[in-house]
Amino acid sequence: MKFFKKTVTSVSLSAIALMGASSAVNATVVLDFEGVGNHANINDFYNGGTDSLGNSGTDYGIEFSEDTLGCIDADAPGGTCNFANEPTESTAMFFLNANNSILNMAAGFDTGFSFFYTSSRAASVNVYDGLNGTGNLLASLDLSVNWQDNSCSGDPAGMFCNWDAIGVEFAGTAYSIDFGGTANQAAFDDITFGSATAGGVPVPEPATLTLLGLGLAGIGFSRRKTKA
């Protein structure tokens, strides 16, 4: 079952070059996706440009494949997405295409990689020492199905209510991440470069939530809130 449907026009992925960089980015970088538009292609939001709706963020030299979108919690203004308890504020990231789910960092990064995720499908995320998912495999993270683990609480609604932190340390310099296998089935937040601890904060403890049915309506995670 697919949870997402594309509703915005893709912008073609521009080419990235290593530009002769000899060392990786030393500081830990955390992407929380706040400011990315709902269902907007992230594109160059973190690469000195904009998402497909014209929003811009900090330039970290990080580029996303064209089928990578932002999604805002339906409980937040302008949001339509069916998740809850997201790690930071209201926006997360998801992929539409398993064959085009790449993140590139032109300057490279080392030490570790981590993130929070919620997923209805087991999958893996791979870290490579080349751009566009090429070169040597430096690390791999296995994602288990967790979207309703332990149930959840604290957010008014949202079927994808459980988020887990996952991370890995590795040797060498990484330039790309392949999130293949998670398209339309998983969302990500606080993607962290240079640390095996997602967002640099402890893993939140699980709580309890009574789930409101199993159906998903509208666009994947997205749903429209019913007004009384």
Summarize it.
With 228 residues, the protein is mostly beta strands. Helix content is 0%, strand content 28%.
Please characterize this protein's 3D structure:
It is a single chain. With 228 residues, the protein is mostly beta strands. The protein has strands spanning 29-31, 62-64, 68-72, 91-95, 102-109, 112-119, 123-128, 137-143, 164-169, 174-178, 186-193. It has a five-stranded antiparallel beta sheet with strand order 2-5-10-7-8, with no helix packed on it. Strands 1-11-6-9 form a four-stranded antiparallel beta sheet, with no helix packed on it. Strand 7 and strand 8 (137-143) form a beta hairpin. The two termini are 29 Å apart. The model is unreliable at 1-23 and 202-228 (pLDDT under 50).
Distance between the termini: 29 Å
Residue windows where pLDDT falls under 50 for at least 5 positions:
1-23, 202-228
The number of helical elements comes to: 0
- Mean pLDDT metric: 78
Strand line-up in the sheet with most strands: 2-5-10-7-8
Q: What percentage of the residues does DSSP assign to strands (E)?
A: 25-35%
Describe how the helices and strands are arranged.
Blueprint: E1 29-31, E2 62-64, E3 68-72, E4 91-95, E5 102-109, E6 112-119, E7 123-128, E8 137-143, E9 164-169, E10 174-178, E11 186-193
Antiparallel strand pairs: 1-11, 2-5, 3-4, 5-10, 6-9, 6-11, 7-8, 7-10
Provide tags for this entry.
4-stranded antiparallel beta sheet, disordered N terminus, 228 residues, 0% helix, 5-stranded antiparallel beta sheet, mainly beta, 28% strand
